[in-house]
TrEMBL record:
Record protein name field: SGNH hydrolase-type esterase domain-containing protein
GO biological process, one term: lipid catabolic process
Leader sequence segment: 1-22
SUPFAM superfamilies: SGNH hydrolase
Keyword DNA damage: no
Stated family: Belongs to the 'GDSL' lipolytic enzyme family.
Length: 337
């Protein structure tokens, strides 16, 4: 293990304490019966990008460590790409027990393959996890574990930013999903018993892509490509579960959960929590200032009134709404043997 690997693992060991001791308000099940005979995960391992990163992207260019990120929780920048908690924080509860142990390998900006943020991609994250097996985590640890494998589309945004062939995007989507299947198989083979895989959110509805429509409508072309990605992903998960004869792989339908919140302006019909759900709270170059220290962004009065924090990431309230939509089946799917 070279110096960089050792350094990164050290950072991970430090930052995963947010999973252990942070004030996390998870989504609780409406079913309060005990399920002692069902699967009860005790450890959470996280692989992914900025939607799941709780503080690993510790470098000067990471806006997640700059004001105004973290203004809602914990009151200052904590490395989360939001005003507060992110997806991982809301998954930190499974069944009726807190997932008190585990490690977060997610790194903002990365993807299934190398992106312009080159360290570490999903394969590298799994490599780091594998290096800890035997010394830090035993087979019995993994037998009571849950993994979140979350990618939010950096492979595709990176592809588009490089001006590569638009006509070749469907073939590239196939490559991304094929590699995702390899990753899921590998994590399961290492001993993780339950693996959560979110579908890709409707990228065309994120503020970065709704800006041209004054935040009034989604980019249907982008969402069509996302739907293709998700259809392939669902086929992969169905195949893997068929092979294992078990409910090992669980899909969290971020795509429809996001759309539900956008349509309702909140998690339930008639909600007015988010008046303009396609508009971000932090407009402009969030987290950046010019040479004179003047902010290059405009901040909304109340982050709880916005679904999106910046051009790509939900607010804490946005994530809360997404998990509220998912909550009906969330707990039962995680504890199902």
């Amino acid at each position: 293990m070279d110096f960089m690997i050792k350094l990164f693992v050290s950072l991970l060991l430090f930052f995963f304490s947010s999973l252990l001791f942070g004030e996390i308000n998870g989504v609780e099940s409406s079913n309060h019966h005990h399920h002692y005979h069902l699967y009860s995960p005790k450890k959470l391992f996280v692989f992914g990008d900025s939607y799941a990163d709780t503080g690993n992207t510790k470098e000067p260019r990471a806006v997640s460590w700059r004001i105004p990120y973290g203004i809602t929780f914990p009151g200052k920048p904590s490395g989360r790409f939001s005003d507060g908690r992110v997806s991982t924080d809301f998954l930190d509860y499974a069944g009726e027990k807190r997932l008190q142990y585990g490690m977060n390998f997610a790194y903002g900006g990365t993807g299934v393959f190398n992106t312009q943020v080159t360290f570490p991609n999903m394969t590298t994250q799994i490599n780091l996890f594998e290096q800890l097996l035997g010394d830090v985590y035993s087979p019995s640890d993994l037998s009571s574990s849950l993994a979140l494998v979350s990618v939010a589309g950096n492979d595709y945004s990176d592809y588009l930013s490089l001006n590569l062939s638009i006509a070749a995007i469907p073939a590239f989507i196939n490559q991304v999903v094929d590699q995702t299947e390899v990753n899921l198989r590998r994590i399961h083979a290492l001993g993780v018993k339950k693996i959560v895989v979110p579908t890709l959110q409707p990228l065309g509805c994120l503020p970065l892509y709704t800006l041209s429509a004054s935040f009034q409508g989604c980019n249907d072309t982008f969402n069509t490509l996302v739907s293709y990605h998700n259809s392939l992903l669902l086929q992969v998960v169905a195949k893997l579960n068929n092979e294992t004869n078990h409910s090992t792989f669980i899909v969290f339908d971020f795509y429809n959960a996001f759309l539900t919140v956008f349509k309702n302006k909140g998690e339930y019909p008639g909600s007015t929590k988010f008046e303009t759900p396609l508009k971000p709270c932090c407009e402009g170059s969030c987290g950046h200032v010019d040479e004179e220290g003047t902010e290059k962004y405009i901040l909304c009065d109340d982050p709880e009134s916005a679904f999106s924090w910046d051009g790509l990431h939900p607010t804490q309230e946005g994530w809360k709404s997404v998990y509220s939509v998912l909550s009906k089946n969330l707990t039962s799917s995680l504890i199902k043997p």
